[in-house]
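SAMPLE LOG
Freezer: B-3
Tube label: C17
Construct: single chain, 220 aa
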Amino acid sequence: MTELASPRAKRLQRPSWRDSRLVVGVLLVVVAATLGAKAVASADDRVPVWVAASNLVAGDEIAEASFVRADVRLADGMNAYLAADAPAPTGSFMLRDVRAGELVPVSAVGGADAVDVQRVTVRADAMATTGLARGSRVDVFITPKSSTTRDAATNPTKKILESAAVAAVMTSSGGFGAGSMTSVQIYVPADKVQPLVEAVDGEARLTLVPSVGAVSGGGA
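STRUCTURE (predicted):
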């Protein structure tokens, strides 16, 4: 009786780079990875910029704690803000006010030669300084000291500064009532420093009146 021939089992072969299916599979993986990376990059197009950590006033020297970094999404062409891909410009100065949480414009920062104000400490009635905080803007009025009624008539109260920036408000001194005084540091334009100092030395009474839009108490 004739025996039927048994079919030989085919050995499994490792896929070759010449195998079109393997090549297509690799290409699909590469394309998928590339498209995924592009999608992630386009979804997160934020850029790092510096943000004011507290109320910054024109004349302030910039320290490490002045700014915090934030990643924000800016419209095309909006490169007017200070980029945070470089260290904060410590040692530079604020040329104009920037409120806490606001982006810092490039134009708001400059060197010492661009600063045209000086910090002067004055004392005013505590009641007149209620609600003032760092970053407030105040009009400064002086009432010359007078010994007679005629002196008071010839030296009336006048405004000596307009919209001066408050750098700091110190703890009031003295007791409660009319005698209580508060020390306030304000930034004064260079050409107004001497008249203000002369008024203070002459024991004139200073009154600080908040300007429209001034920062209220509690601002940092």
